[in-house]
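#lab-general

N.A. 3:47 PM
ok so I finally got the sequence cleaned up, no stray characters, all 833 residues accounted for. can someone with queue access submit it? mine expired

B.Y. 3:52 PM
send it over

N.A. 3:53 PM
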Amino acid sequence: MKLIKPEWIEHGPKESLSSLHINPEGIRVALAGKYNAVDCIRIFRLASILDETYQTQSRLLCRIDTQCPLCVRFAYTSDVLAVASRQNVLLYHLTSTNPNVTNLQSSSSFGDFPETWRLRSSLSSGHVADILDIAWCPLNDRYLASCSIDNHICIYSWPSTTLTITLRGHTGLVKGLAWDPTGLLLASQSSDGTVKVWSSTTWQCEQTIKEPFDGCAESTSFLRLDWSPDGTMFTTAHAKNNTFPVSACVIRGASTVDAEFVGHRREVTCARFLQRILLINGRRRCLLAIGSKDRTLSLWLTSPRQPMCIINDFFASGILDMSWHLNDNDGLITLGICSPDGACAFIIFNKDELGTPLTRHEMEKFYSDMYKVNILIPTKTITNGAPMTNGNGHSHHLQQSTVKATLANQTERRLGDGRRCIKPLCIDTHTPAPTPTPSPALPPPPPPAPTSNSSSTPSIRHMPTIPIDPKPTKGVIRSSTSSITLPSSISSTTLFPPLKLQSNLIRKINNEYELRTEKSDQFYILSCINEKTKLVQWKNIFQSPLLAIQATKNFIAIVTLQETQHCSELFILQQQSGLRLYSNIVLTQTLASLYISENTNNIHRATISLIYITGLLTVFDITRNSMTCPIIDVNIAHLLPPHASIVDIFTLNHINSDTVCLITSTGHLYGFDNMLKHWTCLFHKHDFVSDFALPSELTSSGPLSTLTKSYGATINDDIYQKTLYSSPNRDLLVSAYLETQIHRSRILHSSREYYFWLTSFVRFLASSSLDDKSLKLKSILDHLAEHVHSTPTNSNINLMPLKTKDEYQNLLNECLIILRNHDDASTLVQHYE
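B.Y. 4:20 PM
back already:
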């Protein structure tokens, strides 16, 4: 076994990888992710990774820039690369090779490459949200399946590229797909806690497995499962045995888990079988690789199930995707692994090191005997030293001459900015080709010995006819440079389901007005109807469908979906007239929720909150004449445990201070600390005030008190309070609560409440039986005296609600007055007086 982690495949803080796949011939490996802060796919020559002596000038074969590529998969029978990009499945075809290109920098997205991959089809009719996984039907590519965060699975026919059917049944994000070796069954795993098995003959769900997956899939970006090469079972991604993460094994036709692969400390994200049965000591075994978020890779043999290899701390982050390849010529078995930290690695097993794999003919006979189906495994194999064909069996020389002859009839026009718009043509590859003369192909590696003339000639594999979209492509231009990318700090992990388009949206405003949408002549009209008179008060028109509408008495927030550009836009309208107040704002990610709340102190002010599917929050504070953005792409996923939701988001205004607040269904109220740029808890249902902590005649007034009175009555937990009152540690609990209230007042810049809670804390400590109360009182008085007798720095002034020395002097005097009534504090009083 040999482990290779190529450092020249650059990775760093701006890089990430989401998918890796080795093509069936073992020539190429595709890596999808972010490189130099640009979303792209890089196709490398596999031989240059496995052989250190390979020429470095021809490692990178091609680079394709596309939006948010989350999964890449090569087809089995043709040189086609399927890419999951946003809501589309993009199909790239290898159209030509450039053998004269020998020196290329992998960081460049311009210039020539050793290979040319062209976008020929875009499957965009199925999903309305980001696609997480795709899978070709083995081994004839009859179908291409894709799954998305819209909870659906789409099946496309190949090569017609038409949508065959949309499978509905999951109620959560579908994060993984896998065909069985015969192509008769399709398994899918979702965040709804189920795994379903679908029949490709009836497209009905034949199995639903729930038990080990319930509530355990929310924390993983992908759930990439796989079938064993014998088709008798499939192994899932993240499952649980009690509280321990495992990978579950489900027998074909069964509705329960047969066995579990245990040992990983965190969630399993990917499981991949070597798609050949191994003979070990005369017995048939299957080889399985399991990757986890704990940065560990484990290799298993089945029957009996036992781990044969464990590699710890493989990457700086977890493992997201893996791909196997078996070279029939030299018997080498290669496993490729990628991680979201931008690194990839490859494990090479020598011939017979793991066992003897069945030959292609033996695998075909096995499928015929066991499942009564005839499956022909592709036989195209190319050694590292053999010339590389273009995927249809023709040499580079012949293909280039064919392309040049065809391009003579290709139409081209220039745009105003100088860019070229070229009409695509279908190049027929089914015509029998004459025997080509020998010509140099891509630069071969320096071989240790001359290639033998007795090596077998690669069999010809024809590329299916490429369908051309009959729709006009006027004005549609794909940029050949970088695509639109997100900031590097933004995670692409999907946590919340996206908003779905509805044919007609209806919203009521205080039972006085009704907002209604309708489609007319490819446009979308928003009407405001008076509930009393039933008359239309005003109308506004949009070119894109309306995804969400929220309103207050004075403002209306609207999000539209730009389907052609795969982005959303925010519009803000005046409620009385329907006029647009600001320019439309392009949102950075797919929207999950839209909130708007009216300011309690000023009805002409509102807070608009946008929550993206990645768990990020953006907040706009608006008035009739101004608009600010106090929060930009701040993570809130950690504030919501599983099955929790957001009740409301609003801005709390107090004097010159504005605090964005968030209320969850679990009874927590959080405020955003603008100084520290983090969330802090301002109230939750386990808060309490002890009877002896505060005299009944004392009450605070201010923003913190307003929050407590508004939400404490509805979400406070009386049973929990009773438990705390009977606790032997209640003095410590009260002390901790009062300290928390002091700092909450500071965050809200409420000087009155800061004054109130600090004096209440001093009063409680003076009368309590805590052993360390003298130390705490002295620390409080030292803190106040320091501000009285010194000049605070600017940073201290910003962090403290009290700004002047006189305010601290009055607070110190008040504390000393409280302590005078307690004999055990007389020494402290005399010292500070």
